[in-house]
């Protein structure tokens, strides 16, 4: 079992998370309005503590996009890296992925309120870019590599209490990247604070660079754990050293399946230097990036019965999909109906929604977007089915 049940500082807000998000959205809009109304100084960013809010919403949206895209992509075997299904324990373990985003926003809110140097931060400063790149490639990556490598290999005590929580997910999802006990998460916060605090200390900080660094962390985290290969081979041909600077989904996937290789954070350089990269990294990358054609044994065609059933799909929001009956009709009207209308407008046919293994069989689920037509054209549907039955189909 997992001893380290993470008790997160924002855990109290969990039952009210939807309200927190909604409240923040309103705050974000107000923040933008206040900014517009006050007339900013030239080239200066907003001074309000609420500046952290738009960043938080952007990060939530970005991660949710990764979740949906990766579930859609891994529903097909083409570029999928690990072919096993995800179990319910993992879904439960990873469903509070947004806690760390909310916590970061709270930290920034406090910093923005109390530190005078955070008032009127400029939009851009190129010194901050140079500093962040150097500090990330140097101390952040290096410290993470040694911390990770050393601990995993030599300190079973720490591994079993902390890092095993992240490694419990062999088939990773984008949000596996942020699934850690709180003590471990705090260590990552300290690591990522190195470039951010250095920018502040040297006066090279800027709104753009702060946000770009946070988004870089999120992007690379989701990339490494999305479980399908998408980094185009062309990029490595155009710029060969990229191999040492950017990891790929298959590279980090090997860390989850093999445990004792590919320890790097986002930049595989130190794995190459110290010879800890997995020997099969290149081969797995080649195999998954080119893809393979596997025909499923069973295809399950399903169609939506009501607009709400769109929200029950695995492609969307885990917290809603896992408790479909708890959805209030007002929330459904607000979210599900426009989404369903959009889906039936955009989608012409069926889309892949999930794939599962049942014994020896590979089962693919296809969802049909035209829920209204399916419902309204009961007649032709039934007629076609009858014909199929008659012809022995
Ligand atoms: Zn690890
Ligand atoms: Zn990982």
Automatic annotation (TrEMBL):
The chain crosses the membrane at residues 129-147, 186-209. Its EC number is 4.1.99.5. It is found in: Endoplasmic reticulum membrane. Residues 134-276 form the Fatty acid hydroxylase domain. It is a multi-pass membrane protein. It is an enzyme of class 4 (lyase). It comes from the Eukaryota. Residues 382-393 have a biased composition (Basic residues). It catalyses: a long-chain fatty aldehyde + 2 NADPH + O2 + H(+) = a long-chain alkane + formate + 2 NADP(+) + H2O. Its main location: endoplasmic reticulum. One of its GO terms (molecular function) is oxidoreductase activity. GO terms for biological process: lipid biosynthetic process. One of its GO terms (cellular component) is endoplasmic reticulum membrane. Keywords: Endoplasmic reticulum, Lyase, Membrane, NADP, Transmembrane, Transmembrane helix. Residues 371-393 are annotated as: Disordered. Homodimer. Belongs to the sterol desaturase family. This is aldehyde oxygenase (deformylating). It comes from Aegilops tauschii subsp. strangulata (Goatgrass).
């Amino acid at each position: 079992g997992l001893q380290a049940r993470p008790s997160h500082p924002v855990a109290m807000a969990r039952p009210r998370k939807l309200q927190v998000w909604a409240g923040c959205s309103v705050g974000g809009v107000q923040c933008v309005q206040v900014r517009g109304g006050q007339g900013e100084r030239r080239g200066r960013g907003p001074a309000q503590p609420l500046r952290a809010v738009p960043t938080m919403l952007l990060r939530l949206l970005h991660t949710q996009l990764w979740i949906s895209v990766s579930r859609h992509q891994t529903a097909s075997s083409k570029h999928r890296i690990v072919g096993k299904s995800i179990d319910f324990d993992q879904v439960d373990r990873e469903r509070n992925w947004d806690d760390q985003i909310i916590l970061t926003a709270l930290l920034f809110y406090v910093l923005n309120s109390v530190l005078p140097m955070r008032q009127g931060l400029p939009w851009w400063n190129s010194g901050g870019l140079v500093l962040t790149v150097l500090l990330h490639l140097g101390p952040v990556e290096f410290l993470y590599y040694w911390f990770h490598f050393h601990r995993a290999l030599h300190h079973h005590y720490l591994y079993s209490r902390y890092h095993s929580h992240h490694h419990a997910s062999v088939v990773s999802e984008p949000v596996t990247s942020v699934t850690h006990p709180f003590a471990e998460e705090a260590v990552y916060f300290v690591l990522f604070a190195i470039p951010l605090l250095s920018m502040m200390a040297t006066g090279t900080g800027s709104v753009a660079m702060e946000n770009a660094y946070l988004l870089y962390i999120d992007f690379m985290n989701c990339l490494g754990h999305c479980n399908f290969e998408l980094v185009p081979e062309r990029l490595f041909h155009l710029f060969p050293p990229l191999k040492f600077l950017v990891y790929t989904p298959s590279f980090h996937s090997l860390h989850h399946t093999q445990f004792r290789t590919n320890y790097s954070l986002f930049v595989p350089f130190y794995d190459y230097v110290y010879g800890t990269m997995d020997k099969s990294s290149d081969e797995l990358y080649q195999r998954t990036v080119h893809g393979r054609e596997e025909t499923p044994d069973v295809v399950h065609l399903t169609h939506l019965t009501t607009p709400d059933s769109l929200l029950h799909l695995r492609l969307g929001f885990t917290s809603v999909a896992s408790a479909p009956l708890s959805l209030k009709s007002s929330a459904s009207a607000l979210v599900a109906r426009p989404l369903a209308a959009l889906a039936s407008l955009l989608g012409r046919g069926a889309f892949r929604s999930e794939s599962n293994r049942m014994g020896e069989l590979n089962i693919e689920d296809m969802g049909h977007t035209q829920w209204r037509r399916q419902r309204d054209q009961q007649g032709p549907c039934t007629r076609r089915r009858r014909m199929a039955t008659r012809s022995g189909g």
